[in-house]
Amino acid sequence: MPPEIGKLRHLMSLELHGNGLSGSMPDEVYNLEKLQLLNLADQWGIQRKCNKTDGTVVDINYSMGGLTRPKKENAGLTGALGSKLSIWRSMKGLYLNKNSFDGIIPEEIGFLRYLRYLWLHDNFIEGTIPSTITKLRNLKHLRLGENFLMSSFPPEFGRLGDMEILEVNGNSMFGEIPQGLYKMSNLEVLRLDDTLMNEAPWLVVPDEGMTGSISTFIGALQDLRWLLISNNPMTGTM
Predict the structure, then answer these.
(1) From first to last of its 238 residues, what are the pLDDT tens digits of the chain?
(2) Distance (Å, rounded) from C-alpha 1 to C-alpha 143?
(3) Phi-psi region of 181 (alpha: psi -120 to 50; beta: other; left: phi over 0)
(4) Under DSSP, is residue 38 helix (H, G, I), strand (E, B) or coil?
(5) What's the whole-model pTM score?
(6) Phi-psi region of 13 (alpha: psi -120 to 50; beta: other; left: phi over 0)
(7) CA separation for the pair 124, 58 (Å, rounded)
(8) Angle 126-127-131 (CA atoms, 0-180°, nearest 5)?
(9) Which long-range contacts (CB under 8 A, 24 or more apart) does 149-156 make?
């Protein structure tokens, strides 16, 4: 992505998903104050080839389409989400999944009060789920699966009453399912599976995996279609 993209100050939607982009996401992206949709997802893992007019094969599974030597597998865009994302006050959809972003989810995510869709799954994001995420009252999709988070759910997580998809699978989650989660009446997908320590699954520590039991209030989630809580040290009866 060229840094000059930051000069497009009136840009409201930037969609580059499903290509074979690599390298760092330029900081100049944070200059796009009017962005409502940023979709940089799926820069790896898609089987797609095409031919140039001279017959050369371009394969997006490799960096630079496999046109440089030696060939290097494409891992997508890199970099960390910075505190500057608070500039995106109008953001409604942030799709960065299937890249190689690292670092933490910054506390400033709480400033994106219009955010509805946050897709960060399949990256290398670390740290915890920030408590400020509970300020995003319009949030419908929170997809954080397959990262390196080590976190429990923040207090007052049940404030996110519009939630439809919640995925934290494939991270190192711990603690009990918060009671507020059972008040998310619009919830359709809940993935808490495989939350044993992702970094070192052979280690056993007291806080490993989601604990406790499934509350009888689970019956209140009438719209739920997918419930995955496998591979956790949960107890109790059904």
Answers:
(1) 899 999 999 999 999 998 888 899 999 999 999 999 999 999 986 555 566 567 665 555 655 555 556 556 668 899 999 999 999 999 999 999 999 999 999 999 999 999 999 999 999 999 999 999 999 999 999 999 999 999 999 989 999 999 999 999 999 998 889 999 999 999 999 999 988 765 554 455 556 688 888 999 999 999 999 999 998 888 877 6
(2) 24
(3) alpha
(4) strand
(5) 0.87
(6) beta
(7) 27
(8) 135
(9) 149/125, 149/173, 150/126, 150/174, 150/197, 150/199, 151/127, 152/128, 153/129, 153/177, 153/178, 153/181, 154/128, 154/129, 154/130, 155/131, 156/131, 156/180
**Burial of residue 224, with CB atoms counted within 10 A of its CB: 0-12 exposed, 13-18 middle, 19 or more buried:** middle
Identity of residue 25: M
CA 26 to CA 38: how far, in whole Å? 13
Q: Which domains can be identified in the chain, with CATH numbers?
A: 3-46+74-228 (3.80.10.10)
Only one residue has tokens 């599976």, namely: 193
